[in-house]
Amino acid sequence: MSKFNALVHNENVKIYSRARTWIMLLLLAVFSVLIPVLIYVNSTPENMPGQWDGFQITLSVIFNLTTIFTVVIASDAIAGEFSWGTIKLLLIRPWSRSKILLSKYISMVLFSLLTTLLMTVCAFAASLILLPSGGAGMTQGGWSPEAYSGMLIVCRYVELFLTATLAFMVSSVFRASGLAIGLSLFIIFVKNLFITIFNPDRFEWAKYLPFSHMDLSGYLVSDRGPGGVALSFSIGVLAAYYVLFLLLAWVVFSRRDVAG
Amino acid sequence: MTGNTAVTEPVARLLGVTKKIGSKTLVGDLTLDIPAGQVFGFLGPNGAGKTTTIRMMVGLISISRGDIVIGGRSIKTDFEEAVAQVGAIVENPEMYKFLTGYQNLKQYARMVSGVNKQRIQEVIDLVGLGSRIHDKVKSYSLGMRQRLGVAQALLHRPKLLILDEPTNGLDPQGIRELRDYLRRLCREEGTTVFVSSHLLSEMELMCDSVAIIQNGKLIDVRRLKNEEGTQTPGGEFVFEVDDLQTAQTLIGGTVRNGEGIVVQTVREDIPELNAKLVSGGVRVYGIKEVVVSLEDQFLEMTGGEGIE
């Protein structure tokens, strides 16, 4: 048997051989640079935000794009093989379905890391060059600007990671990339509205839903999260949903009859 | 001479294979041995369960009851080892259109051990894709995709090559080429080929043996060619004579209007029968073997139903 790495390599080839992947990466780089440029152009020397402020603003805007692009890749991972018909040739190799699914998941995670890194580097470089040094306005709770920015990236990445895993699961269960993309985007955009309507402070059950826990950045400045829960509770809820999504994706994928 | 192939262990064995979806039985209790070194046809009308059976053989769908053993390994419990001995195209050969033919082959080469550049080139030469292998698959014609499909199936030198309706959508020349290299493969590399089709005449030309399936049930398995690759000697001969009654009293047989008298016999006895007729004063105009085509046999067996 050849090595598992080869499977991940195969998945990577499928992702990076397509023009749309490079278009997404290019767009991401352009927008990550564009936000600091816009901040620079639209400010007077007196009210120009510092480079850390500019960096954090850029991150909070562009992370949505990073999430969407990762969701696009995650949604196509399995649904694409079904719609192309190539699933029939993929599953008749001497590899278990679990390993094939895992290789797809890993390649998706690698893509999410790449997009996050690309965005971070572009946004940081542009902020560093264009904006004046210093500026720790968004830093609270005794964090240094570097550490706060780093933690912000980690928190937003957790959100991206869970959303992409959801898209991956929908892609496996329904074999429809459109549905996976649509549902994930719906959650990204409706999440905050949902939290407002079903506020965990008022509705006890709402704190068992993942929505209010997906943005962990609140814990950077406060010990208590939505509904008065602790960080460990939020992490527990997110972990439970994560395992549930992966389990669903795995059970459906490994048992499915591939016909028609 | 004929004994050799019979003694060899079958490449694949279907043991009471059943596939049920809900209350509907798609394939029922199918038991079949696929002998090594043959081009083995799997024949049946559309919807008879051919593709369902093939999908079970390569593990794409689960087996409700029974088991399929390939090279001694169960596809149910020992999937990776069993399927490693199989190369297959299930229905149309679907490839990654945004990759070149060569990149597609490399995808599958990476998933098995022991396939190097040289082997990839070998199969490209075998299926005759030439320099077009470096073009994107989206620019390929159906015939070229079919060739690429065969190439990916052969890459790891499988013992058993499974092709589901391989002649679908091919032009007559493509069909002929496919037939030729399947036979060559079988002869030169000893690969067993299991090929499904609803095209009877095609199967007759291509296969050594056929299994006939209808409504998910195996109806018959028969050998079409003997070792020399000729038709098996049929048992029925027609004598064209002037006086049917006299002829019948002399040599027996049955009278068939418009044709003559039909006798059940072996080839060696024909001169003797002819001598009897001649000495009995019957004029013989012609003697010929009644060749029952696979199509006639098939229609007879399936009651002429459900065939395209």
TrEMBL record, chain A:
Q: Where are the transmembrane segments?
A: 21-41, 61-84, 105-131, 151-171, 178-198, 229-253
The signal peptide here is none
Write down the superkingdom of origin: Bacteria
Q: Which UniProt keywords apply?
A: Membrane, Transmembrane, Transmembrane helix
User: What's this protein's name?
Assistant: ABC-2 type transport system permease protein
From TrEMBL, chain B:
**Database matches in InterPro entries:** AAA+_ATPase (IPR003593), ABC_transporter-like_ATP-bd (IPR003439), ABC_transporter-like_CS (IPR017871), P-loop_NTPase (IPR027417)
SMART domains to which the protein is assigned, alphabetical: AAA
Q: Name one GO molecular function term.
A: ATP binding
Asked if the keyword ATP-binding belongs to this entry, the reply reads yes
Q: Name one Pfam family in it.
A: ABC_tran
Which Gene3D superfamilies does the entry mention? Answer: P-loop containing nucleotide triphosphate hydrolases
Top-level taxon: Bacteria
The chain positions of domain ABC transporter read 12-240
UniProt keywords (A-Z) are: ATP-binding, Nucleotide-binding, Transport
What PANTHER family does the entry give? ABC TRANSPORTER, ATP-BINDING PROTEIN
Which family, according to UniProt?
Answer: Belongs to the ABC transporter superfamily.
The name this protein goes by in its record:
ABC-2 type transport system ATP-binding protein
Please give the organism.
Paenibacillus forsythiae
